[in-house]
Amino acid sequence: MKESDLMTRIRLYELAKELGIENKVIVEKARELGFDVKSHMSSLTDDQINKIRELYKNKSDKKRPNKSKIKVSVGALRRTNGNEDNNKKKKKADLTKNTNSPKEKVNNPKPAARDLLNKLQKKQRQESVALEEQVKRSKKQWHEEQIKKVDVTENKMPVEGAEAVRARVKVAKKVAGPKIIKLSPARQKADNEAKNDQVKHSNAKRDFRPRQAKATKSMDISAVISDSPVPPEENRKLRNKEYGKTGRKKQRDDDADFERSEQSDKARRRKNRKVKGQQPIDLIKKQPTQRKDRPLPEILVFEEGMNAQDLGKLLHREPAEIVKKLFMLGIMTNQNQSLSKDTIELLAAEYGIESKEKVHEDISDIDNLYEHEMEVSKKSQNLVKRPPVVTIMGHVDHGKTTLLDRLRNTNVSAHEAGGITQKIGAYQVKLDDRLITFLDTPGHAAFSNMRARGAEVTDIVVLVVAADDGVMPQTVEAIDHAKSAGVPIIVAVNKIDKPGANPDHVMEQLMKYGLVPEDWGGDTIFVKISAKSGENVDDLLQMILLQADMMELQADPNQKAIGTVIEARLSKGRGPVADVLVQQGTLNIGDPIVIGDTFGRVRVMTNDKGRRVKKATPSTPVEITGLSDVPEAADKLVVFEDEKTARSVGEQRARNSLEKQRENTQHVTLDNLFDTMKKENMKEVGIVLKADVQGSTEALQQSLEKIDVEGVRVNIIHAGVGAINESDVTLASASNAFIIGFNVRPTATARSQADNEGLDIRLYNIIYKAIDDVEAAMKGMLEPTYEEKVVGSLTVRETWKVSKVGTIAGALVDSGYITKDSGVRVIRDGIVKYDGKVASLKRFKDDVKEVKQGFECGITIENFNDIKIDDQLEAYEMQEVPVK
Ligand SMILES: Nc1nc2c(ncn2[C@@H]2O[C@H](COP(=O)(O)OP(=O)(O)OP(=O)(O)O)[C@@H](O)[C@H]2O)c(=O)[nH]1
Q: Where is this region: G-domain (predicted)?
């Protein structure tokens, strides 16, 4: 539209005013006539104006007489308190008219007329409700029509774009509603500025235009009033109602809208100032484009440290709104400031949505990846039976190795018979086309060592008990190890070929340990075998398969392979070699892998028969090469997508493990028991108990198990007679337990192993003291323990007898030091003559606190005067044992 056209044209609202009709009506009418109008602010050509004037000439003539009705209706409407619109009021006006001067009758009703009036008022009320409904319907319909029309025009006007159309819809709506009435002071200023600019260009409208902007409100209302029988007050309510909001709420929303677009508004105002004489229609078009907020997400997945801008993107909200929201919550921040987890959660709660912190997956945490694959396998649809993995345990010389050898050599299928049996830490035997995997390291030490390192590969334990020897200490240890790991036990009563064999006795003995044969009403499988002759060995295999079936051991051969190292070594020609048990998925040649802190690609894969294989399915043991370094037994194997990732993960892990080596792993000790219980929410305190005789073991076990502190109970993982050995230490370590010894001592190797692992061994010779200590530790009240430490040794050179004082010894400090508070032992010819305390310590005539090596001193001992020349004095202190 050209500027010159604009100056001579009349705007729709002016025409509406002239014709005494509502803006929206005239807009509608103009559109019906096919004029291109966007709102009541649109201007028309003379021709168009004439057409509308023509149309309304008759109509307005007809309408005029109604004005008399308006006056009548006001009073009536006030009485009914209605919020009706024109139509309704018109009807009411008609009704009231029929009552002949209702005012008079209401104020002074005659008795005969009262009933009639009541009836009439009742009818009015009913009609008022009906009318209200109708008004609502017609309003809704009108809005829908507007939107439809706009939708149609939108297609016709691609030049202007959807944004312009949307703005027009809003403007169109605003014409009918209260929104346009209130402008924020800033906007009004801008409006005035723009309009003043316009005035300079428009002589014809000079007297009207300057007033127009600030008079928008009165203009609108007057326009409505002139066409409406409703008083201004009613009218305001009416319009508020149309929008389903109270005026104040609506106002707040308006303000919020304005604030939301404050920034864009500023830019717009700047632009308006620049473009002098721009048509007012542009102002309307540039009303804040009400950004339709996209719906909030259901859950806000955030990272700590995000700022309002980041959150704005996630919440589909303006950052300014986020800052404002936080401000309302009492949190002062700007758009770029990092926010704490609590703040973000609070914000999410304010928006009424859930929040969740994004979990960063650490791909170097292969234990986690391993667990993840384990979980994946549980839910897999491709599960197939997998061979059970078996460990053989038992007392020394009961026949574990003989059994393993027999199995390895006899149960090899025909086509594999030619292969040279490899020693790769595990092997498989076949029975009825079903495989069983045996770990080749018998005994509970290896089993628990693996467990201590987090590897739980054994499905079933075969406990070998020699029928001619019966249950022995390591038999019991093995039972405890298996039970602690929650692995089912199958008992192989061995050496039944021996003349002195008494299998039933073994079965009786084992009942004491909870292993009751099925024949005797229990659920433990017993098989009587001879490992030497091979008798019933197949039965044993059969029973293992039966147990495996009961356990429903399954795996998904299609998923990513995971496994555990059974053994690893450095081979001269082949570099690092690892014997791996594949546990889930299928391991293939060329797979990029990480094992423990090493990485590489599976180069050569060899099975237990020494044959090269291309893949290894679940429960298959294989030897692999291609690793960067030698991993450790119990290390986990995880397959990665590419070698590059595997390398970076492996290297990262190697770095991490170096760091970890510096930190000492802390086991549960009596000293840290209470804190650990609290920290790890322990419900059980594990104890490995060793005593000198069976009687004291039982007594101690019973008393310890009775301790109950705040729902935490003592769990005796193993109780036995004899010195504390390496097996006890391994078991305690694997079960995060500590060891109590009663009248027993640890062996040298067990002691050093415990020291290395930071494992607590407590030695007692009084039962109640042990019980008190455990109970006190569980209650967090354990007294610090003290240990005697010899700090110096002295030789008596001279003695003086002084009455009242006793014997004074003149002595030289040979090594260390002696203090006034020291304990002192008098040793003569290697025998301790007296053990007491220093009574006085002097250098020459002065009392001193301490005398060091190389100095002489005068010393008296409390209650002891029998000191002789050449006696050795041993100074000692009680020092607090540092918490392990
Ligand atoms: N008569 C007979 N002797 C057996 C049987 N099983 C094992 N032996 C013998 O018992 C002895 C010990 O057997 P091993 O297999 O070495 O026992 P182990 O449990 O492996 O012993 P460690 O490795 O020391 O723990 C060997 O001389 C075997 O020949 C059997 O079923 N019958």
A: 388-536
Query: Using an 8 Å Cβ cutoff, are 873 and 841 in contact?
Result: no
Instruction: Give 185's contacts (C-beta < 8 A, 6+ positions apart).
Output: none
Is residue 400 within 6 Å of ligand 1 at its C-beta? yes
Asked whether the beta carbons of 818 and 844 are under 8 A apart, the reply is: no
Unique residue bearing structure tokens 């000692």: 876
State pLDDT tens for residues 751-809.
888 888 888 888 888 888 888 888 887 777 555 677 788 899 999 999 998 888 889 99
List own/partner pairs for 832-840 with CB under 8 A and 24 or more apart: 833/866, 833/871, 834/861, 834/864, 834/866, 836/861, 836/862, 836/863, 836/864, 837/861, 837/862, 838/862, 838/875, 839/806, 840/805
Q: CB–CB of 87/134 below 8 Å?
A: yes
Return the DSSP state at 520.
Answer: G
Q: Do 362-371+380-385+556-664 and 682-780 agree at the fold level?
A: no
**pLDDT for residue 726 is more than 50:** yes
CA distance 344 to 751: 52
What distances in angstroms separate CA 198 from CA 218, 276, 640, one per listed residue?
A: 21, 8, 71
Is 399 touching ligand 1 by the criterion CB < 6 Å? yes
Q: In the beta sheet, which residues pair with residue 601?
A: 592
> What is the full DSSP assignment across 678-741?
HHTT-SEEEEEEEESSHHHHHHHHHHHHH-EETTEEEEEEEEEESSB-HHHHHHHHHTT-EEEE
CB of 430 within 6 A of ligand 1: the answer is: no
Tell me how far apart the alpha carbons of residues 506 and 774 are, in angstroms, rounded to a whole number.
35
Model confidence pLDDT, tens digit, residues 280-297:
444 444 454 555 668 888
State whether residue 580 is helix, strand or coil.
strand
pLDDT band for position 615 (cuts 50, 70, 90): very high
- Counting DSSP H helices and E strands in the chain, the numbers are 31, 34
Distance 376 CA to ligand 1 centre (A): 42
Q: pTM of the full predicted structure?
A: 0.46
pLDDT at 525: 93
Scored b (16 or more CB within 10 A) or e, 647-682 reads bebbbbbbeeeeeeeeeeeebbbbbbbbebbeeeeb
Ligand 1 within 6 A of CB of 696: no
- Domain boundaries, given as residue ranges, for the chain: 10-57, 299-357, 362-371+380-385+556-664, 387-552, 682-780, 785-881
Q: Which of 391, 393, 397 to mutate to test the pocket of ligand 1 (most atoms within 8 A of CB)?
A: 397
Q: Closest Cα to residue 40, out of 54, 28, 55?
A: 28
Give the three-state DSSP class for 282.
helix
Superfamily of domain 785-881: Translation factors (2.40.30.10)
Contact of 759 with 739, CB cutoff 8 Å = yes
How many Cβ atoms are within 10 Å of 231's Cβ, its own excluded?
A: 15
In terms of CATH, what superfamily is 362-371+380-385+556-664?
Answer: Translation factors (2.40.30.10)
Is 557 among the annotated ligand-binding positions?
no
Q: What is the CATH number of domain 682-780?
A: 3.40.50.10050
Q: Which residue owns the Cα nearest ligand 1 atom 32?
A: 495
Report whether 834 contacts 826 (CB < 8 A).
Answer: yes
Q: Report the CATH number of the 387-552 domain.
A: 3.40.50.300
- Phi/psi for 250 (5° steps) reads -60, -40
Q: Which two tokens stand for residue 805?
A: 């004082």
Q: Is 299 in the pocket of ligand 1 (CB under 6 A)?
A: no
pLDDT above 90: percentage of residues in the chain: 27
Pairing of strands 712-721, 684-691: parallel
Give one DSSP letter per residue of 408-471, joined into a string. Answer: HHHS--GGGTTSPPP-SSEEEEEETTEEEEEES--SHHHHHHHHHTT----SEEEEEEETTT--
631, HSE (Cβ side, Cα atoms, 13 Å):
32
What ipTM did this prediction achieve? Answer: 0.98
